[in-house]
Write a sequence for this structure.
């Protein structure tokens, strides 16, 4: 591969946001290089074969948040992306019962009525409340977060747009919106439902990837963050990328290269090159240097500004603000190769909900106690698990007759038995194995024969995710999705529009607005900001400029 010594723009990190930003810049005619520390692309959206015959979605594992505008603009289906919807899910109990969540409205109502006739009636009101919040927030995902202290015409215009949208809600609904954004998912569910099992099933989306409990203020928005995506126009729907989540990154990589971009793997960043307050390029760990007047970092905000820049290159108040940004590890992951489909004795034969997300937590207080363990520096004694078997829908993930199970685990601390020094150093192989045994014990509630089916287990603690993917403390959102770290506060007040105090250095990852998940919006928005700041129109198909 012939490399130049200079480019119009360099992207650091070939995660999906970096690939998105690079693809838009390359399509705008810019000469773009993406450098990636691993020997593969994708960041947390990656598929890898770590056991012969099985493919794992190692970190992220389901698709919904990816913006349809980006899929359309980059023509990702033409580059091999296929997303297959899955239907429903279930929570299993120790006494052999279950609550099934169906995508079919009538089936779901009947199932809810089986557990609580009152909750069957309440679900329509709950769904409408969540949908109203989704409709309000979705238009902001692909717009800049305005600086409320700025008098620039662009910021004034975005503030006016925000005020118009808020005014359109009406006084009562605006009050409910502000309340929703600041309340806990536990309180939100308590005000709608009475059945513990139904509430526990719905609560998971409010805590996944977050160092907060179900009764922590702000977790209702985390649920919204997981509901605002869509598959084939179905808001809140989820699906599997055929071939694993790495298929998204692979399609983006092909779209980027088709537009003339260059990807350099095995190229870890040593430092950003800065002269007279302006970025001039990057220096790699192997000693190579590449020059560009624009550099966009797909790393999280702390790694970008506290690890790979000299302190003298940044204002001290900015460094302090970055240091306060909350990025806490709370999640682990198991990827399991199965020789055949495990049995779920409580479920009817061939139940559709077995092809969705499955859980075993049965009350909000059980989930809150799991959070208490995490606060004390322990993995949860009864962790929340989100387990799926995507090979039922996508047979490319496992050999004939075999299956792949992916299990997201909440809560697992970055620093075990927290001693104030957040190093993650005390995650030993023995403790990884003990965590896996605890999680598999939880899986046995739903499928008692699971241990007999296992051929291989990959255990990923927050430390492992940090080491491989580069996410500080293994935080999957590159920063907590709390109200104090959203919109014009993300990542730092005054710097919410992807630029930084170092001229030409931008953020394009999930630490920037609108936050984490395999969404692509931070990367696309950052590309628009770069084009606008460097003489392009900043207008991209599907976006407000």
């Amino acid at each position: 591969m012939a490399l130049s010594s200079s480019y119009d723009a360099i992207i650091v990190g070939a995660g999906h946001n970096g690939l998105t930003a690079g693809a838009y810049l390359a399509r705008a005619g810019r000469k773009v290089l993406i450098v990636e520390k691993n020997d593969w692309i994708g960041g947390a959206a990656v598929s890898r074969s770590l056991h012969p015959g099985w493919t794992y979605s190692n970190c992220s594992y389901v698709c919904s948040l990816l913006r349809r505008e980006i899929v359309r603009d980059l023509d990702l289906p033409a580059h091999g992306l296929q997303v297959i919807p899955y239907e429903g899910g279930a929570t299993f109990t120790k006494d052999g019962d279950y609550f099934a969540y169906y995508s079919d409205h009538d089936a779901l109502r009947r199932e809810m009525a089986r557990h609580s006739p009152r909750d069957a009636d309440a679900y329509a009101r709950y769904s409408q409340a969540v949908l109203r919040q989704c409709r309000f927030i979705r238009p902001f995902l692909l717009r800049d977060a305005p600086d409320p202290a700025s008098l620039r015409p662009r910021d004034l215009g975005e503030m006016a747009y925000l005020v118009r949208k808020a005014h359109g809600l009406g006084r009562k609904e605006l009050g409910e919106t502000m309340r929703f954004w600041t309340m806990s998912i536990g309180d939100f569910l308590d005000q709608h439902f009475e059945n513990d099992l139904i509430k526990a099933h719905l609560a998971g989306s409010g805590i996944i990837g977050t160092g907060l409990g179900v009764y922590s203020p702000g977790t209702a928005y985390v649920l919204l963050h997981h509901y605002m995506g869509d598959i084939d126009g179905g808001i809140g729907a989820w699906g599997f990328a055929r071939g694993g989540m790495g298929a998204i990154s692979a399609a983006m990589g092909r779209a980027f290269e088709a537009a003339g971009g260059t990807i350099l793997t095995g190229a870890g960043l040593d430092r950003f090159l800065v002269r007279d307050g302006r970025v001039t390029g990057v220096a790699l760990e192997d000693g190579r240097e590449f020059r560009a007047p624009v550099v966009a970092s797909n790393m999280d905000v702390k790694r970008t500004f506290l690890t790979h820049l000299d302190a003298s290159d940044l204002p001290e108040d900015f460094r302090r603000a970055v240091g306060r940004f909350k990025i806490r590890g709370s999640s682990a992951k198991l990827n399991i190769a199965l020789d055949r489909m495990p049995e779920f004795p409580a479920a009817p034969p061939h139940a559709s909900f077995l092809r969705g997300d499955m859980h075993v937590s049965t009350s909000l207080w059980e989930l809150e106690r799991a959070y208490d363990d995490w606060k004390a520096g322990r993995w949860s004694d009864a962790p929340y698990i989100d387990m799926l078997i995507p090979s039922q829908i996508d047979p490319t993930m496992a050999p004939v007759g075999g299956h792949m199970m992916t299990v997201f685990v909440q809560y697992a601390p970055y620093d075990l038995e927290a001693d104030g020094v957040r190093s993650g150093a005390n995650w030993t192989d023995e403790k990884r194995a003990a965590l896996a045994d605890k999680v598999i014990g939880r899986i046995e509630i739903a499928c008692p024969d699971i241990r007999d089916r296992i051929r291989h287990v990959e255990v990923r603690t927050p430390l492992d995710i940090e080491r491989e993917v580069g996410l500080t403390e293994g935080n999957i959102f590159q920063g907590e999705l709390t109200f104090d770290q959203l919109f014009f506060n993300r990542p730092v007040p005054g710097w919410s529009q992807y630029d930084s105090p170092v001229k030409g250095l931008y953020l394009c990852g999930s630490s920037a607005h609108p936050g984490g998940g395999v969404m692509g919006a931070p990367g696309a928005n950052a590309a628009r900001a770069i084009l606008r700041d460097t003489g392009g129109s900043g207008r991209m198909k599907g976006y407000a400029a």
Remarks:
- The CA atoms of residues 530 and 536 lie 8 Å apart.
- Residues 541-545 have pLDDT under 50 and may be disordered.
- The domain at 9-45+68-81+244-326+476-533 is CATH 3.50.50.60 (FAD/NAD(P)-binding domain).
- The first strand starts at residue 9 and ends at 12.
